[in-house]
Design brief:
The structure is a single chain. By secondary structure, the chain is α+β, with helices and mostly antiparallel strands. 39% of the residues lie in helices and 15% in strands. The protein has 23 helices and 16 strands. Strands 8, 11, 12, 13, 14, 15 and 16 form a seven-stranded mixed beta sheet that branches. Strands 4-1-5-6-7 form a five-stranded mixed beta sheet, with helices on both faces. Helix 5 runs antiparallel to helix 6, helix 6 packs parallel to helix 9 and helix 17 runs antiparallel to helix 21.
């Protein structure tokens, strides 16, 4: 073991690997400069990795290699803190990074994986093809074999790829060689295959989750693309978003391992301190990011977990990262916020805030009356329906599908799907049994004067009774349209409906209704509808916060003290209402603007 300076050092190799089972110890004799030879315990997985590295050294008698378990005193917190800040330099300055993918201790190499890797290795050395042509031909040829694709999916879902520290180790390296069993292959050779796998997997499974396509190594494509290919800066929010599915023995490493890759990493977390609790780290970084990016949008990141955030742990105003780490899924609203959080021209965090209390300005919007888990039955007749009610009916459908039915589907076709949802024809067009169960459970969910099922039938009843404005949509005459085209478009409309309902309801969001406190306009209803976080309860308050682009559900626990439950998604029909709120914030000492403590 030699002590060297990174400023001027001889060429060296850095090892990237997964620690594996910490209880399975092997022993290594370590000869340190000026110290007695001693034996140290290492994991069996590291032992396998070192053997593989030693066997490939060829005729070299000496191999200079950096290994974290050997070069960092893991029991010395100060040394760990110091070394964490140097990780990027260590791996970026290495002549080569060797990545031991496996197999992990207790398992044998997969023959199918080794065959596929060898095939890729041979393809890149074809003399008749350029490097780019060879890389392209690799994924094209493997696409024809399901067995080879299955082998590569298994390879890219190995435990190694889900270790959070390998992200920085692979991203900043100039040369990366992957080792699996007795086979080695360059990272550059793996990239086109991984891209094809991610694309194919995303097409099959959809992208409800945060990370791409359900392939364990997929996030590395984003990091390498930003770091090397396009030189785009990466924010700590982006990095944490892309890596929610990764693993770390110490949960604090889910943050610390990313700091060196992010342009704002050490501004948000100035010093990676292992003496600091996870609660304190997340609280401080959240408060700093709210002020740095002048936005409170991130307080809406709650995650759809079955358990709400424990106020004794991380404050509810901080993004619920432990929940986001434990589940690959987020609500549809949270996904929108992840993709494009809004910023403002002022700091939304009041100066009297503390590490545990976030003090903000807010305006009360209303109180939640009902959420879509309600099974209340209602049999009021659809009498007295007005044009405003038909407008509300459309609003309900747009909210339930989150306006994502697509531009290619005509309004009348969309409307027919809502009308048919609780009919035999509509039931047969829904192919997800969970959506069917949701429709059954919430048929009697009341919104204003009627249930959601009755709202779906409202337009047909109004047309039958009044006839004057049967619809704001123009329905084509059946005799004028070719039956085959009509049927195809009907199928497309139902496909879009299925996808929209799975996208929204599958993310955990729930439909909610509340009475608003705005001045009621003539011929308008006095309630609002939107999509809320799954932890929302009846009687929770809806507030508009200064510096947050969407309304937020808060739960009062004391006078002027609230817990954050999550954000509220509203259709653009409510844009005018939201502008009214923003204008009130600009009025000095406005009576409706209050200061709240979020805990």
């Amino acid at each position: 073991l030699k002590h060297v300076s990174l400023i001027d050092t001889e060429p060296y190799t850095a090892l990237s690997y997964c620690w594996g089972d910490l209880s399975s110890d092997e022993f290594l004799r370590l000869d340190s400069e000026g110290a007695q030879v001693r034996s140290i315990a290492i994991t069996e997985n590291l032992h396998r990795a070192l053997l593989a590295v030693w066997e490939r050294r060829g005729e070299k008698q000496e191999l200079r290699i950096w290994v974290d378990a050997l070069c960092i005193n893991q029991s010395d917190l100060y040394e760990r803190i110091q070394q964490v800040q140097m990780m990027r330099q260590i791996y970026s300055r290495a002549e080569e990074v060797l990545a031991w993918v496996g197999p992990i201790a207790g398992t044998a190499p997969s023959p199918a994986i080794e065959r596929s890797l060898r095939k890729m290795q041979m393809a890149i050395h074809q003399p008749t093809l350029s490097a780019d042509q060879a890389l392209s031909s690799i994924s094209d040829s493997m696409l024809k074999s399901e067995d080879e694709w299955d082998a590569m999916i298994s390879f890219f879902n190995k435990e190694y790829w889900r270790r959070v520290w390998i992200i920085q180790e692979i991203t900043v390296a100039s040369t990366v060689t992957m080792l699996y069993g007795a086979v080695e292959v360059s990272w550059d050779v793996l990239v086109p295959v991984l891209r094809s796998l991610v694309k194919r997997s995303a097409h099959r499974l959809g992208e409800q989750g945060i990370h791409m396509g359900g392939i364990g190594a997929s996030h590395l494509l984003r990091f390498r693309e930003h770091w090397i290919d396009t030189n785009k800066p990466i924010s700590i929010l982006q990095a944490m978003t892309w890596t929610t599915h990764t693993k770390a023995t110490d949960p604090r490493d889910k943050i610390f391992a990313l700091l060196g890759l992010c342009h704002d990493g050490f501004r948000i977390v100035p010093v990676p301190n292992y003496k600091q609790s996870l609660k304190s780290i997340i609280s401080e970084m959240s408060r700093l990011s709210f002020s740095l990016y002048r936005s409170l949008d991130l307080i809406c990141l709650r995650g759809p977990g079955t358990k709400s955030q424990d106020p004794a742990e991380i404050p509810t105003w901080a993004p619920n990262w432990p929940s986001l780490w434990s589940s690959p899924y987020i609500t549809s609203l949270e996904k929108l916020i992840f993709q494009s959080p809004k910023s403002f021209d002022f700091d939304p965090v009041l100066t009297t805030s503390t590490t545990s209390v976030l003090r903000v300005k807010a305006i009360y919007v209303g109180s939640i009356n009902r959420i879509s888990s309600s099974l209340e039955r209602h049999t009021q007749k659809l009498d007295g329906a007005t044009k405003e009610h038909v407008r509300v009916r459309l609003l309900i459908w747009r909210t339930l599908t989150m306006d994502c039915l697509g531009v290619d589907i005509r309004a009348d076709e969309i409307d027919e799907c809502f009308t048919s949802l609780w009919t035999p024809q509509g039931r047969g067009s829904i192919y997800n049994t969970q959506i069917i169960n949701w429709l059954d459970s919430n048929a009697w969910f009341k919104i204003g004067p009627w249930t959601i099922r009755e709202w779906s039938q409202l337009q047909a009843r109004v047309a039958e009774n009044q006839g004057v404005w049967s619809s704001s949509f123009l329905r084509p005459m059946a005799g004028r349209v070719n039956a085959e085209i009509t049927e195809r478009r009907r199928i497309e409309a139902w496909d879009a409906t299925n996808q929209a309902l799975e996208h929204v309801l599958g993310s955990g969001m729930r439909l909610a209704e509340w009475n608003h406190v705005l001045e009621k306009r003539p011929k308008t209803v006095n309630f609002m509808i939107g999509l809320v976080n799954p932890h929302t309860r009846s009687s929770d308050g809806v507030f508009f916060l200064r510096g947050c682009s969407v309304p937020v559900v808060l739960r009062q626990i004391a006078s002027d003290t609230y817990q954050v439950i999550g954000g509220v998604w509203l259709t653009d029909r409510y844009t005018g209402y939201l502008e009214q709120f923003r204008e009130k914030f600009d009025v000095p000492y406005h009576a409706e603007v209050v200061v709240l403590d979020l805990v």
